[in-house]
Amino acid sequence: MPECTDTHIGARIAEQRNIAHLTQRGLADKAHISYSLLSKVESGHKPASPALVAACARALGIESSILVGQPFTAEQREDRFDAPIAAIRASLENWDVPLDPVAPPRALHEIAADVKALGELRRSAEYLKTADKAPALIDELVEATHRHEGRGRERAHRLLAYTYRCVHDVVYGLGHIDLGSAVLARMSYSAERSGDPYMVVLTAYLRAQSCFNTGRHEVGFRLMERSLADVEDDVRRGDRSALCVQGNLRLRATMLAARLSPASKSQEDSARAQWQEAWETAERLGGDTQNYVMSFGPSNTRIHEVALEVELGHYGRAVKAAEKMHLPDEFCELYPDRVSHHYIDVSRAQLWTGDRQGAFTSLLRARSAAPQKTRYHPQARETVLALRRADRSSNETLANYVRWLGV
Protein backbone atom coordinates (compact mmCIF):
# COMPACT_ATOMS: atom_id res chain seq x y z
CA MET A 1 0.00 0.00 0.00
CA PRO A 2 1.21 3.55 -0.65
CA GLU A 3 2.51 5.55 2.24
CA CYS A 4 -0.20 7.78 3.66
CA THR A 5 0.96 11.35 4.01
CA ASP A 6 -0.55 14.79 4.24
CA THR A 7 2.72 16.48 3.29
CA HIS A 8 2.11 19.19 0.72
CA ILE A 9 4.72 21.05 -1.30
CA GLY A 10 4.58 24.08 0.98
CA ALA A 11 5.54 21.95 3.96
CA ARG A 12 8.54 20.61 2.05
CA ILE A 13 9.57 24.15 1.12
CA ALA A 14 9.44 25.13 4.80
CA GLU A 15 11.51 22.07 5.73
CA GLN A 16 14.20 22.80 3.16
CA ARG A 17 14.16 26.51 4.05
CA ASN A 18 14.85 25.67 7.68
CA ILE A 19 17.68 23.34 6.67
CA ALA A 20 19.18 26.25 4.71
CA HIS A 21 18.78 28.53 7.78
CA LEU A 22 16.59 31.00 5.88
CA THR A 23 13.58 32.94 7.12
CA GLN A 24 10.46 33.13 4.99
CA ARG A 25 11.32 36.67 4.01
CA GLY A 26 14.90 35.65 3.26
CA LEU A 27 13.77 32.90 0.90
CA ALA A 28 11.15 35.14 -0.70
CA ASP A 29 13.77 37.79 -1.42
CA LYS A 30 16.28 35.27 -2.74
CA ALA A 31 13.69 33.55 -4.94
CA HIS A 32 12.13 36.86 -6.15
CA ILE A 33 8.65 35.81 -5.04
CA SER A 34 5.97 37.36 -2.84
CA TYR A 35 6.58 36.94 0.89
CA SER A 36 2.83 36.84 1.49
CA LEU A 37 2.32 34.11 -1.11
CA LEU A 38 5.21 32.04 0.24
CA SER A 39 3.72 32.25 3.73
CA LYS A 40 0.34 31.02 2.48
CA VAL A 41 1.93 28.22 0.46
CA GLU A 42 4.01 26.98 3.40
CA SER A 43 0.97 26.98 5.68
CA GLY A 44 -1.08 25.08 3.11
CA HIS A 45 -3.56 27.89 2.48
CA LYS A 46 -2.44 28.23 -1.15
CA PRO A 47 -1.24 25.50 -3.54
CA ALA A 48 2.29 25.86 -4.85
CA SER A 49 2.60 26.61 -8.55
CA PRO A 50 5.41 25.04 -10.63
CA ALA A 51 6.93 28.49 -11.11
CA LEU A 52 7.06 29.11 -7.36
CA VAL A 53 8.49 25.63 -6.76
CA ALA A 54 11.20 26.20 -9.37
CA ALA A 55 12.08 29.61 -7.92
CA CYS A 56 12.35 28.23 -4.39
CA ALA A 57 14.38 25.23 -5.52
CA ARG A 58 16.82 27.45 -7.39
CA ALA A 59 17.19 29.75 -4.39
CA LEU A 60 17.72 26.79 -2.05
CA GLY A 61 20.22 25.12 -4.37
CA ILE A 62 18.19 21.94 -4.82
CA GLU A 63 16.11 20.35 -7.57
CA SER A 64 12.39 20.94 -7.87
CA SER A 65 11.74 17.20 -7.59
CA ILE A 66 12.82 17.33 -3.94
CA LEU A 67 10.15 19.91 -3.14
CA VAL A 68 7.35 18.07 -4.95
CA GLY A 69 8.32 14.77 -3.31
CA GLN A 70 9.29 12.82 -6.42
CA PRO A 71 9.72 10.02 -7.10
CA PHE A 72 6.65 8.62 -5.37
CA THR A 73 8.36 5.37 -4.51
CA ALA A 74 5.62 3.68 -2.50
CA GLU A 75 3.07 4.13 -5.27
CA GLN A 76 5.55 2.96 -7.90
CA ARG A 77 6.27 -0.13 -5.85
CA GLU A 78 2.54 -0.80 -5.59
CA ASP A 79 2.17 -0.40 -9.36
CA ARG A 80 5.14 -2.75 -9.92
CA PHE A 81 7.49 -0.27 -11.53
CA ASP A 82 10.60 -1.47 -9.67
CA ALA A 83 11.57 -4.25 -12.08
CA PRO A 84 10.95 -2.28 -15.33
CA ILE A 85 12.88 0.74 -14.03
CA ALA A 86 15.77 -1.54 -13.03
CA ALA A 87 15.67 -3.08 -16.52
CA ILE A 88 15.81 0.37 -18.09
CA ARG A 89 18.85 1.26 -16.00
CA ALA A 90 20.52 -1.98 -17.08
CA SER A 91 19.74 -1.35 -20.77
CA LEU A 92 21.50 2.03 -20.58
CA GLU A 93 24.81 0.36 -19.64
CA ASN A 94 25.50 -0.53 -23.25
CA TRP A 95 25.25 1.82 -26.18
CA ASP A 96 28.53 1.27 -28.02
CA VAL A 97 29.73 -2.30 -27.44
CA PRO A 98 28.79 -5.12 -29.86
CA LEU A 99 27.75 -8.31 -28.07
CA ASP A 100 26.98 -11.90 -29.07
CA PRO A 101 23.26 -12.22 -28.36
CA VAL A 102 21.51 -15.59 -28.31
CA ALA A 103 19.49 -14.53 -31.33
CA PRO A 104 20.55 -11.87 -33.86
CA PRO A 105 18.41 -8.73 -34.08
CA ARG A 106 15.39 -8.85 -36.33
CA ALA A 107 15.09 -7.00 -39.61
CA LEU A 108 14.78 -3.26 -39.06
CA HIS A 109 11.28 -3.09 -40.51
CA GLU A 110 10.12 -5.61 -37.89
CA ILE A 111 11.75 -3.65 -35.06
CA ALA A 112 10.30 -0.42 -36.47
CA ALA A 113 6.76 -1.78 -36.04
CA ASP A 114 7.43 -2.39 -32.34
CA VAL A 115 8.99 1.07 -31.95
CA LYS A 116 5.87 2.60 -33.50
CA ALA A 117 3.69 0.69 -31.04
CA LEU A 118 5.92 1.92 -28.22
CA GLY A 119 5.31 5.49 -29.40
CA GLU A 120 1.56 4.93 -29.20
CA LEU A 121 1.94 3.71 -25.62
CA ARG A 122 3.99 6.83 -24.85
CA ARG A 123 1.31 9.15 -26.22
CA SER A 124 -1.24 7.36 -24.06
CA ALA A 125 1.01 7.83 -20.99
CA GLU A 126 0.98 4.06 -20.47
CA TYR A 127 4.07 4.31 -18.31
CA LEU A 128 4.21 0.70 -17.12
CA LYS A 129 3.68 -0.90 -20.53
CA THR A 130 6.26 1.44 -22.09
CA ALA A 131 8.78 0.66 -19.37
CA ASP A 132 8.15 -3.07 -19.77
CA LYS A 133 8.73 -3.16 -23.52
CA ALA A 134 11.53 -0.62 -23.97
CA PRO A 135 14.60 -2.40 -22.49
CA ALA A 136 14.48 -5.35 -24.91
CA LEU A 137 14.05 -2.95 -27.83
CA ILE A 138 17.04 -0.91 -26.66
CA ASP A 139 19.26 -3.99 -26.46
CA GLU A 140 18.13 -5.20 -29.89
CA LEU A 141 18.62 -1.82 -31.53
CA VAL A 142 22.05 -1.27 -29.98
CA GLU A 143 23.11 -4.58 -31.53
CA ALA A 144 21.50 -3.56 -34.84
CA THR A 145 23.61 -0.39 -34.95
CA HIS A 146 26.73 -2.59 -35.01
CA ARG A 147 25.43 -5.10 -37.58
CA HIS A 148 24.33 -2.59 -40.19
CA GLU A 149 26.28 -0.16 -42.32
CA GLY A 150 25.45 3.12 -44.05
CA ARG A 151 21.75 3.97 -44.20
CA GLY A 152 20.83 0.82 -42.31
CA ARG A 153 22.97 1.89 -39.36
CA GLU A 154 21.49 5.40 -39.49
CA ARG A 155 17.97 3.95 -39.42
CA ALA A 156 18.85 1.74 -36.45
CA HIS A 157 20.16 4.78 -34.59
CA ARG A 158 17.03 6.76 -35.54
CA LEU A 159 14.80 4.02 -34.13
CA LEU A 160 16.98 3.79 -31.04
CA ALA A 161 16.87 7.56 -30.48
CA TYR A 162 13.08 7.50 -30.67
CA THR A 163 12.92 4.56 -28.25
CA TYR A 164 15.01 6.57 -25.80
CA ARG A 165 12.56 9.45 -26.32
CA CYS A 166 9.70 7.18 -25.21
CA VAL A 167 11.67 6.00 -22.18
CA HIS A 168 12.49 9.59 -21.23
CA ASP A 169 8.79 10.46 -21.00
CA VAL A 170 8.26 7.58 -18.59
CA VAL A 171 11.19 8.19 -16.24
CA TYR A 172 10.65 11.97 -16.25
CA GLY A 173 6.93 11.52 -15.59
CA LEU A 174 7.72 9.21 -12.69
CA GLY A 175 10.19 11.70 -11.24
CA HIS A 176 13.44 9.79 -11.88
CA ILE A 177 15.26 12.94 -12.94
CA ASP A 178 18.83 11.59 -12.86
CA LEU A 179 17.79 8.56 -14.88
CA GLY A 180 16.17 10.91 -17.37
CA SER A 181 19.50 12.68 -17.82
CA ALA A 182 21.20 9.36 -18.56
CA VAL A 183 18.52 8.52 -21.12
CA LEU A 184 19.09 11.89 -22.82
CA ALA A 185 22.83 11.22 -23.05
CA ARG A 186 22.14 7.92 -24.85
CA MET A 187 19.55 9.59 -27.06
CA SER A 188 22.00 12.30 -28.03
CA TYR A 189 24.61 9.68 -29.01
CA SER A 190 22.17 7.93 -31.37
CA ALA A 191 20.53 11.11 -32.66
CA GLU A 192 23.89 12.43 -33.83
CA ARG A 193 24.41 9.17 -35.78
CA SER A 194 20.87 8.90 -37.16
CA GLY A 195 21.34 11.13 -40.20
CA ASP A 196 18.19 12.95 -39.05
CA PRO A 197 18.67 16.55 -37.87
CA TYR A 198 15.18 16.57 -36.37
CA MET A 199 16.20 13.83 -33.93
CA VAL A 200 19.01 16.10 -32.77
CA VAL A 201 16.52 18.93 -32.28
CA LEU A 202 14.16 16.58 -30.41
CA THR A 203 17.00 15.81 -27.99
CA ALA A 204 17.45 19.53 -27.32
CA TYR A 205 13.69 19.87 -26.82
CA LEU A 206 13.75 17.19 -24.13
CA ARG A 207 16.90 18.61 -22.59
CA ALA A 208 15.07 21.92 -22.19
CA GLN A 209 12.34 20.05 -20.30
CA SER A 210 14.84 19.07 -17.62
CA CYS A 211 15.53 22.79 -17.12
CA PHE A 212 12.09 23.07 -15.51
CA ASN A 213 13.36 20.81 -12.72
CA THR A 214 16.70 22.54 -12.19
CA GLY A 215 15.30 26.05 -12.56
CA ARG A 216 17.75 26.87 -15.38
CA HIS A 217 14.99 28.26 -17.56
CA GLU A 218 17.35 30.66 -19.30
CA VAL A 219 19.41 27.69 -20.52
CA GLY A 220 16.32 25.94 -21.85
CA PHE A 221 15.16 29.10 -23.58
CA ARG A 222 18.51 29.56 -25.34
CA LEU A 223 18.41 25.91 -26.41
CA MET A 224 15.06 26.55 -28.04
CA GLU A 225 16.37 29.65 -29.80
CA ARG A 226 19.31 27.68 -31.18
CA SER A 227 17.09 24.81 -32.31
CA LEU A 228 14.67 27.22 -33.99
CA ALA A 229 17.57 28.61 -36.01
CA ASP A 230 18.52 25.05 -37.03
CA VAL A 231 15.11 24.37 -38.62
CA GLU A 232 14.56 27.83 -40.08
CA ASP A 233 15.60 26.97 -43.65
CA ASP A 234 13.34 23.91 -43.81
CA VAL A 235 10.46 25.93 -42.35
CA ARG A 236 10.94 28.58 -45.00
CA ARG A 237 10.59 25.87 -47.66
CA GLY A 238 7.32 24.73 -46.07
CA ASP A 239 8.54 21.31 -44.92
CA ARG A 240 5.71 19.95 -42.75
CA SER A 241 8.03 18.05 -40.41
CA ALA A 242 10.00 21.25 -39.86
CA LEU A 243 6.78 23.17 -39.17
CA CYS A 244 5.74 20.59 -36.55
CA VAL A 245 9.14 20.84 -34.92
CA GLN A 246 9.12 24.64 -35.04
CA GLY A 247 5.68 24.81 -33.44
CA ASN A 248 6.69 22.58 -30.55
CA LEU A 249 9.90 24.51 -30.00
CA ARG A 250 7.87 27.73 -29.82
CA LEU A 251 5.50 26.21 -27.27
CA ARG A 252 8.35 25.05 -25.06
CA ALA A 253 9.97 28.48 -25.40
CA THR A 254 6.62 29.96 -24.34
CA MET A 255 6.59 28.09 -21.04
CA LEU A 256 10.28 28.67 -20.39
CA ALA A 257 9.88 32.41 -21.03
CA ALA A 258 6.97 32.48 -18.58
CA ARG A 259 9.24 31.14 -15.84
CA LEU A 260 12.28 33.31 -16.41
CA SER A 261 13.16 35.07 -13.16
CA PRO A 262 12.59 37.66 -11.91
CA ALA A 263 9.08 38.00 -13.31
CA SER A 264 8.40 41.15 -15.29
CA LYS A 265 6.09 42.66 -17.88
CA SER A 266 8.73 42.12 -20.57
CA GLN A 267 8.94 38.45 -19.55
CA GLU A 268 5.18 38.07 -20.00
CA ASP A 269 5.35 39.86 -23.36
CA SER A 270 8.12 37.52 -24.48
CA ALA A 271 6.11 34.44 -23.51
CA ARG A 272 3.03 35.71 -25.34
CA ALA A 273 5.11 36.51 -28.42
CA GLN A 274 6.43 32.95 -28.48
CA TRP A 275 2.89 31.59 -28.21
CA GLN A 276 1.71 33.85 -31.04
CA GLU A 277 4.52 32.54 -33.26
CA ALA A 278 3.40 28.99 -32.44
CA TRP A 279 -0.19 29.86 -33.33
CA GLU A 280 0.89 31.25 -36.69
CA THR A 281 2.74 28.00 -37.37
CA ALA A 282 -0.38 26.01 -36.43
CA GLU A 283 -2.45 28.08 -38.85
CA ARG A 284 0.14 27.50 -41.56
CA LEU A 285 -0.18 23.74 -41.05
CA GLY A 286 -3.94 24.04 -41.37
CA GLY A 287 -4.83 21.45 -38.73
CA ASP A 288 -3.54 18.97 -36.19
CA THR A 289 -0.71 17.07 -37.84
CA GLN A 290 0.70 13.75 -36.66
CA ASN A 291 4.42 13.62 -37.35
CA TYR A 292 7.12 11.01 -36.82
CA VAL A 293 9.17 13.36 -34.63
CA MET A 294 6.80 15.82 -32.94
CA SER A 295 3.12 16.22 -33.73
CA PHE A 296 1.65 19.70 -33.72
CA GLY A 297 -1.38 21.78 -34.55
CA PRO A 298 -4.07 24.18 -33.29
CA SER A 299 -5.32 21.88 -30.50
CA ASN A 300 -1.99 21.60 -28.72
CA THR A 301 -1.40 25.32 -29.21
CA ARG A 302 -4.74 26.14 -27.58
CA ILE A 303 -3.85 23.81 -24.71
CA HIS A 304 -0.68 25.82 -24.19
CA GLU A 305 -2.67 29.06 -24.26
CA VAL A 306 -4.43 27.85 -21.12
CA ALA A 307 -1.17 26.58 -19.61
CA LEU A 308 0.49 29.96 -20.23
CA GLU A 309 -2.24 31.88 -18.41
CA VAL A 310 -1.93 29.47 -15.48
CA GLU A 311 1.85 29.89 -15.47
CA LEU A 312 1.53 33.68 -15.45
CA GLY A 313 -0.97 33.55 -12.60
CA HIS A 314 -3.93 34.80 -14.67
CA TYR A 315 -6.24 32.06 -13.47
CA GLY A 316 -9.49 33.70 -14.51
CA ARG A 317 -8.18 34.10 -18.05
CA ALA A 318 -7.08 30.47 -18.04
CA VAL A 319 -10.56 29.29 -17.06
CA LYS A 320 -12.19 31.44 -19.74
CA ALA A 321 -9.75 30.19 -22.39
CA ALA A 322 -10.49 26.60 -21.37
CA GLU A 323 -14.24 27.18 -21.55
CA LYS A 324 -13.91 28.44 -25.14
CA MET A 325 -11.85 25.42 -26.20
CA HIS A 326 -13.13 22.33 -27.92
CA LEU A 327 -10.65 19.50 -28.32
CA PRO A 328 -11.54 17.32 -31.34
CA ASP A 329 -12.39 13.70 -30.57
CA GLU A 330 -9.58 12.52 -32.84
CA PHE A 331 -7.05 14.62 -30.93
CA CYS A 332 -8.26 13.25 -27.58
CA GLU A 333 -7.97 9.71 -28.92
CA LEU A 334 -4.46 10.21 -30.32
CA TYR A 335 -2.93 12.31 -27.53
CA PRO A 336 -4.44 11.37 -24.15
CA ASP A 337 -1.21 12.43 -22.41
CA ARG A 338 -1.66 16.02 -23.62
CA VAL A 339 -5.36 15.97 -22.77
CA SER A 340 -4.62 14.77 -19.24
CA HIS A 341 -1.99 17.48 -18.70
CA HIS A 342 -4.46 20.07 -19.96
CA TYR A 343 -7.12 19.13 -17.43
CA ILE A 344 -4.56 19.13 -14.61
CA ASP A 345 -3.72 22.74 -15.59
CA VAL A 346 -7.42 23.65 -15.79
CA SER A 347 -8.03 22.17 -12.35
CA ARG A 348 -5.28 24.38 -10.91
CA ALA A 349 -6.85 27.48 -12.42
CA GLN A 350 -10.32 26.52 -11.18
CA LEU A 351 -8.96 25.91 -7.69
CA TRP A 352 -7.34 29.36 -7.58
CA THR A 353 -10.59 31.00 -8.73
CA GLY A 354 -12.57 29.23 -6.02
CA ASP A 355 -14.36 26.70 -8.22
CA ARG A 356 -13.54 23.60 -6.17
CA GLN A 357 -16.18 21.41 -7.81
CA GLY A 358 -14.93 22.39 -11.24
CA ALA A 359 -11.36 21.66 -10.18
CA PHE A 360 -12.31 18.17 -9.04
CA THR A 361 -14.29 17.52 -12.22
CA SER A 362 -11.24 18.46 -14.27
CA LEU A 363 -9.09 16.07 -12.24
CA LEU A 364 -11.59 13.30 -12.96
CA ARG A 365 -11.27 14.10 -16.67
CA ALA A 366 -7.48 14.03 -16.39
CA ARG A 367 -7.62 10.58 -14.79
CA SER A 368 -10.05 9.36 -17.44
CA ALA A 369 -7.72 10.50 -20.24
CA ALA A 370 -4.43 9.15 -18.85
CA PRO A 371 -4.61 7.52 -15.39
CA GLN A 372 -0.89 6.89 -14.86
CA LYS A 373 0.12 10.38 -15.90
CA THR A 374 -2.40 11.87 -13.49
CA ARG A 375 -1.47 9.57 -10.60
CA TYR A 376 2.18 10.59 -10.78
CA HIS A 377 1.78 14.27 -11.66
CA PRO A 378 2.85 16.50 -8.72
CA GLN A 379 0.34 19.24 -9.53
CA ALA A 380 -2.56 16.78 -9.58
CA ARG A 381 -1.53 15.71 -6.08
CA GLU A 382 -1.12 19.30 -4.89
CA THR A 383 -4.58 20.23 -6.16
CA VAL A 384 -6.18 17.18 -4.56
CA LEU A 385 -4.53 17.94 -1.22
CA ALA A 386 -5.85 21.51 -1.38
CA LEU A 387 -9.35 20.25 -2.22
CA ARG A 388 -9.29 17.80 0.67
CA ARG A 389 -8.19 20.49 3.13
CA ALA A 390 -11.06 22.70 1.95
CA ASP A 391 -13.68 19.92 1.94
CA ARG A 392 -16.06 19.96 4.90
CA SER A 393 -18.68 17.57 3.56
CA SER A 394 -16.75 14.29 3.74
CA ASN A 395 -17.12 13.87 -0.02
CA GLU A 396 -16.67 10.13 -0.58
CA THR A 397 -15.85 10.57 -4.28
CA LEU A 398 -13.05 12.97 -3.39
CA ALA A 399 -11.88 10.62 -0.64
CA ASN A 400 -11.70 7.76 -3.15
CA TYR A 401 -9.65 9.93 -5.49
CA VAL A 402 -7.28 10.82 -2.65
CA ARG A 403 -6.82 7.12 -1.86
CA TRP A 404 -6.24 6.34 -5.55
CA LEU A 405 -3.47 8.94 -5.71
CA GLY A 406 -1.90 7.51 -2.58
CA VAL A 407 -1.86 10.73 -0.52
Overall description:
The chain is built from 23 helices and no strands. With 407 residues, it is mainly alpha-helical.
What quaternary form is this? single chain
Number of strands: 0
Structural class: mainly alpha
Strand content: under 5%
Q: SSE string, helix = H, strand = E?
A: HHHHHHHHHHHHHHHHHHHHHHH
Q: Rough shape? A: globular
Average predicted confidence as pLDDT: 93
- Helix share, percent: over 70%
Could you tell me the radius of gyration in angstroms? 21 Å
Summary keywords:
mainly alpha, 407 residues, 75% helix, disordered N terminus, globular
Give a brief rundown of this model.
The protein is mainly α and 407 residues long.
Secondary structure elements and pairings:
Blueprint: H1 9-19, H2 24-31, H3 35-43, H4 50-60, H5 64-68, H6 73-78, H7 82-91, H8 108-123, H9 127-147, H10 150-173, H11 177-191, H12 197-214, H13 217-236, H14 240-259, H15 265-285, H16 298-311, H17 315-324, H18 329-334, H19 336-352, H20 356-369, H21 371-375, H22 378-390, H23 396-405
